[in-house]
Write a structure and sequence with these properties.
CATH class of the largest domain: Alpha Beta
Shape: elongated
Number of strands: 21
Largest sheet: 7 strands, mixed
Number of helices: 21
CATH architecture of the largest domain: 3-Layer(aba) Sandwich
Helix content: 25-40%
CATH topology of the largest domain: Beta-lactamase
Mean pLDDT: 87
Number of domains: 2
Oligomer: single chain
Strand content: 15-25%
CATH superfamily of the largest domain: DD-peptidase/beta-lactamase superfamily
Length: 614
């Protein structure tokens, strides 16, 4: 009985195991098609379907960036058999040594596997593509993948749009394997910041091929294929015509222009000069051109509006006047005399004494040194350090000394020293306003990016608040959803203190240092600056907004090594304001011609000895 029982038990076990195997085989062969795909890999090709990248438009619907088809020659290494290497190399116009080198390089790439497709030759020409299609049966394992590269409708706004380039190993690691060698990814500008939205999602198709790599059709009628998802179109906030004019006006000059719509924070123009043609960074020559741009001593790849910190010069006097009022040490009627300067800070000849509005109009250095002194030596505070901390709080509330959060890569913080900076130099409680007096006129250790200048201008135009500047207006036809670009950021200055400053800025344009910036029929509030530069001729600086009654544009212009703010920066800003508000910029032909013809990059001036109205 025991023997019979054991036999039956063993038989039952064997039958159970057999049934499990049969069931598993049934499942693998008839139910689980993905296993069948894996098992039949030698007759299947996984072909990536690359999505169309999203198009880029300006705020008015002008197409700026579109796609162009390119062809990459890819290979499934394990399927390469009996290759006619001579014919293959002849079509590609390479040597056998090149062929071996490319294969070895491909094998060293991260994520390489002989059963996975890999790019062998990028962006082959259309004639080469056609030649391969005719003889593809001779080249087992090779096939052509179609993807898109970028094309730029115009040769402008390179720093705004950025460029795409081949992924690195680091990009592949970050993507958890989504990207593979040969794929493209946004590397700068909007292309980088909005890569996820613009890039879409890759798809996959499974194709049956015979032993000679000839396509036999879709596997299972495409049952296992996944479609590609096209990238979303993006509408930038920039006005293309305004951007184009800004680049023309800065031709043969080094500097920046940033224009913002005050009420929304939308960037209307962002110009960096010298710039480059974005179409240089597409196609097979992109690597060569990139290295040429990288080596260019004029640094055309450097995004000056976002990252270059300049001493703001006299435009800082507007923030100084607001801070003085907020600290109750300055009033509209407060008057100071000027006797050619204050201590070691010189000033140009003008009427004296002056109240606040007049001091703004003529840009009196002595006046605003006195304002700075009264702020930092304010008896309300036990130490100058405490008063300076309050000064720092007010100035930083305009977005200075930190990144604003613009939706472009490479933004700099600028320079706004904390009190601890001076403590380290002079010792705690061992410095006063006179120690740092040059800060009162926008010099010394201050460094403000053109983006920060334009943002501060927008805050003045709005009488106390700004919305973080941003370059993308709509994504996929819908408003940019980032709450950062919809929130009002209030400065620490009470709204009531702005009016006198704005009136003074109007006087700057009507009768003061920026008389050249007047536009018939348009009220402008502005301030010139001549920023001292220890490395050469002073920088020409100007910021303004218009119309004063209902501001629609706030603008900051910096022209390096160009001298007075009224000489170059103010006229450039004036022409751009006119273009944006009226659609014309040629009503003052003499001014336009002088700006367009001006060539400042050939200068080698290293000194500036004039006393300047700034």
């Amino acid at each position: 009985m025991d023997k019979t029982f054991k036999q039956k038990t063993l038989l039952l076990i064997f039958l159970s195991v057999a049934l499990i195997y049969i069931a598993r085989l049934f499942y693998l062969q008839l139910v689980d098609e993905s296993y069948f795909l894996s098992a039949q890999n030698n007759v299947l090709q996984e072909q990536t379907i690359y999505p169309a990248r999203g198009l880029i438009y300006d705020r008015n619907g002008e197409l700026l960036v579109y796609n162009d088809a390119i062809y990459d020659l890819s290979v499934m290494p394990e399927q390469v058999k009996d290759l006619d290497t001579a014919a293959f190399c002849q079509i590609l116009n390479i040597t056998k040594e090149d062929f071996i080198r490319k294969f070895e390089k491909m094998k060293k790439q991260k994520g390489y596997a002989p059963w996975k497709p890999a790019v062998f030759e990028r962006q082959i020409t259309i004639p080469t593509y056609a030649a391969f299609q005719e003889r593809l049966y001779d080249f087992n394992g090779f096939f052509v993948e179609v993807r898109t590269d970028r094309k730029y409708q115009h040769n402008n706004a390179a720093h705004v749009m950025g460029y795409i380039s081949e992924v690195t190993e680091k990009d592949i690691e970050k993507s958890d394997g989504y990207y593979r060698m040969g794929d493209f990814i946004g590397k700068s500008g909007v292309e980088r910041t909005y890569e996820k939205e613009l890039g879409g999602r890759k798809g996959m198709r499974y194709v049956l091929v015979d032993s000679k790599s000839r396509t036999q059709g879709r596997y299972k009628n495409g049952e296992f294929d996944t479609p590609a998802v096209a990238g979303k179109n993006i509408d930038l906030s920039i006005d293309y015509k305004l951007q184009e004019l800004g680049e023309q006006l800065l031709t043969n000059k080094t500097g920046s222009v940033v224009a913002i719509e005050p009420k929304t924070g939308e960037i209307l123009a962002l110009v960096s000069s010298p710039t480059y043609n974005p179409n240089l960074l597409i196609g097979r020559e992109r690597g060569k051109h990139f290295m040429e741009l990288l080596r260019d001593p004029m640094k055309p790849l450097f995004n000056r509006p976002l990252a270059a910190p300049y001493p703001p010069g006299s435009i800082f006097k507007i923030l100084m006047g607001l801070t003085g009022q907020q600290e109750k040490v300055l009033f509209p009627e407060t008057a100071y005399g000027c006797h050619g300067g204050y201590m070691f800070v010189g000033c140009h000849p003008h009427g004296s004494p002056l109240a606040l509005k007049g001091a703004i109009a003529v840009s009196c250095n002595a006046y605003f040194c006195q304002v700075y002194r009264s702020v930092v030596n304010n008896p309300r505070y036990p130490h100058a350090e405490d008063a300076y901390n309050s000064f720092y709080k007010h100035i930083s509330s305009f977005g200075l000394g930190r990144k604003l959060g613009v939706d472009l890569f490479g933004e700099g913080k600028g320079l706004l020293p904390k009190s601890t900076y001076y403590d380290k130099i002079y010792g705690r409680y061992r410095w006063q306003a006179t120690t740092t007096i040059s800060l009162g006129i926008g010099q010394g250790e201050l460094g403000i990016t053109p983006l920060q200048m334009a943002n501060a201008t927008a805050a003045v135009a709005n009488k106390g608040y700004y919305i973080v500047p941003h370059i993308v207006k709509r994504i996929g036809g819908k408003p940019n959803p980032n709450p950062l670009y919809q929130t009002k950021n209030w400065t620490s200055i009470d709204t009531s203190y702005f009016q006198v400053m704005i009136e003074g800025m109007e006087e700057v344009v009507k009768h003061g240092t920026a008389y050249v910036a007047q536009i018939p029929g348009i009220s402008i509030a502005g301030k010139t600056g001549t920023a001292q530069n220890p490395h050469g001729k002073d920088h020409s600086v100007f910021f303004a907004f218009a119309p004063v009654e209902n501001p629609k544009i706030a603008i900051a212009v910096v022209v390096e090594n160009a001298g007075f703010g009224a000489t170059w920066a103010a006229p450039i800003a004036s022409l751009m304001i006119e273009q944006y508000l009226t659609g014309k910029h040629d009503t003052r032909k003499h001014l336009l011609e002088r700006m367009l013809k001006g060539n400042l990059n050939h200068r080698n001036d290293t000194t500036s000895t004039q006393t300047k109205p700034n």
